[in-house]
Amino acid sequence: MVRLFLLVLQLLPNFIYYYLPTFSYMRRRNRVFLPENRENPFILSMIIDIAEQGHCQLPWKGTQSSFKDPFKQMIVGVKEHGFGVHLFPTINTVRKGANLILYCIDYVIERWKLRNKGIYPTEIYIQIDGGPENANEYLLHHCEHLVAKRMARKILLTRLPVGHTHEDIDGCFGVIWKYYYRYSNINTFDEFRDGVKQAFLDEDGSQCMVYDWLMVCPNYKIFYDTVLDSRLSDLHKGIYTVFTTYLT
Questions:
Q1: Rounded Cα–Cα distance for residues 31 and 217 (Å)
Q2: Is residue 211 a contact partner of residue 88, using CB atoms and an 8 Å limit?
Q3: Residues 39-53: what's their mean pLDDT?
Q4: pTM of the predicted structure, to 2 decimals
Q5: How far is the CA of 24 from the CAs of 16, 28, 31, 86, in angstroms?
Q6: N or C: which end of the chain has fewer CB within 10 A?
Q7: Cβ(88)–Cβ(176) below 8 Å
């Protein structure tokens, strides 16, 4: 018994560090599938990440060849649980950063609203990784702003520990890469869009929205810099982040 107790004490920090945040995320994600939410949707749950440029460049000439000067395409992927995948392709006119992530989150919220009789969700769950475009004070402040504007009553933002961020959004990027690996000639954006949509249907029947190239992006920072609480950035200095903002 003593050895078992000592073993539990030894493994407990690893369990808290790696598995507890994952279990918590899965429990929140699964709330989307509750009967009450299916009948009258009030929960929006999403996970967001950015795909590697090498896995989505255009034109694509296969793994044994290359194009001299391809588009430097980058894709922000948002998996909306219970609905499908949103892909936001950009080229080098839009920088990777907080503004881009905030725009994609807002766009997914608006799409959810359009599908649900023009009503915003009551609860929003957002899962991110530790990249600087995600783990910053602007995203935390934006969550507070959305609640203050009554676009949600509660927003829960979580960041998994460093080195333990392979979640279901990575599987979505894997579907894109399998599509690329299967074909040796993808020349245009339309071919890319149609092929990726079909790849998700073939994979598990899920919907995939591939939007047009995002050429410009709102500059949220200009509006937030004057009112931003710099102490918010301290919340990202821990092993993982759990941030909740809600109306009282």
A1: 32
A2: yes
A3: 90
A4: 0.86
A5: 11, 6, 11, 23
A6: C
A7: no
